[in-house]
Structure formats: C-alpha cells, structure tokens
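> call design_seq(struct)
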C-alpha cells in the first residue's frame, strides 16, 4: 500500500488553531484514500523546532532529524502551505532548505534518499501566487531528488484583495475536488511504479 505524509506548513504554530492549509490537506487526503493509499496524520511543521541550516541534524533541540525520518518512510510527500506575499510561506521554504543536504547523501549509485519517492503540493491563499508557489516548490523538490507527477498540485485562491479563506468556504469547489482526485491518482500510480522500479542512478 502506498503511504502518504501530509506536511502542513501554515505559519500558525498552534495545532489547535484551524488553518486553510489543514482544510485543503483534508480534501487531498480523502482523494488519496479513495486511491487506496494510506495517509498518515498531518504534521504541523510550525509546531516543531525545525532549525535553519542545510544539514540533516543542526544539533540539540533540532526536530528535523525525526521529521526527516518520517518523511522518508513514506512513498508520497504532500507539501501543503499558504501563499504569503505572492509566494510560498517561510515554513515550507524551511522544509525545502533542510532537504538540500540530500544532494550529498547519495547511495553507491548516486541516488539521493528521495529517489523513488513522489511529491505533490497543496496550496491555499486569498491572493495571487499559486502558480509561482508551485514553481518554487517543484523546482526545489526536483533538485533534491523527488519525482513530481502530472497534475502535481491542487490549489485554491480567493478573490484578489479579498478576505475569504479556504477554511471558511461553505463547500469545497468542484474543481478543487476534481483536481485533488487527479493529483492523488497520478501520484499514487507513479509511487507504485517507483516502489518496484527505482531510478538506476
């Protein structure tokens, strides 16, 4: 069974505080479960102490080593986050920065720890920037060995200069649900193929 791990990169550190990223990740998680994938409990990254740096362990108090282990124990990474100032938020960028060390953690065939694993993005915001955020995420993830499937992102943005959040909608827009299903299907399919036939390196 394909296993997926959602990371909520909201700027809100309190897990009890609702976030639109959580709402989007719930839609995506349902889509993955509909494809017979196992979806682990969402990790609220801002609630952890993910230190700045580009190693796999930045010393005492760094929560990245344990999160790194959890990420790599799954077949699919669902990186969810909000748009701030028309780009992906700083918490998601911290996660991406910490994976930079994968470039030097290769096996005998030159494969990074993320080789053979799939990543997708779940983006929310009430301003422009969804495509730019996806571009940032996908370029960074691809650089450090992740595979991006066709239709690798599901996003929602509200009216320009508006104040409505995704979590406050009365219902999930049909196109969001449809895109989540396509993304989950493609990602689960690709992860299944890679699980049995990793890249040669």
């Amino acid at each position: 069974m394909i296993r997926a791990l959602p990371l909520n990169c909201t700027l809100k550190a309190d897990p009890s505080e609702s976030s639109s990223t959580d709402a989007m990740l719930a839609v995506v998680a349902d889509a993955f479960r509909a494809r017979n994938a196992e979806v682990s409990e969402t990790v609220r990254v801002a609630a952890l102490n993910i230190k700045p740096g580009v190693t796999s362990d930045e010393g005492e108090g760094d929560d990245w080593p344990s999160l790194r282990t959890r990420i790599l124990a799954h077949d699919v990474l669902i990186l969810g986050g909000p748009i701030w100032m028309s780009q992906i938020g700083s918490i998601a960028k911290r996660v991406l920065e910490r994976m930079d060390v994968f470039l030097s953690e290769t096996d005998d065939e030159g494969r990074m720890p993320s080789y053979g694993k799939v990543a997708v993005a779940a983006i929310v915001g009430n301003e422009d920037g969804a495509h730019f955020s996806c571009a940032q995420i996908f370029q960074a993830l691809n650089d450090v060995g992740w595979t991006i499937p066709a239709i690798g992102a599901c996003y929602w943005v509200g009216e320009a200069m508006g104040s409505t959040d995704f979590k406050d909608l009365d219902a999930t827009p049909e196109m969001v649900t449809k895109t989540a299903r396509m993304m989950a299907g493609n990602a689960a399919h690709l992860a299944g193929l890679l699980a049995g036939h990793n890249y040669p390196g």
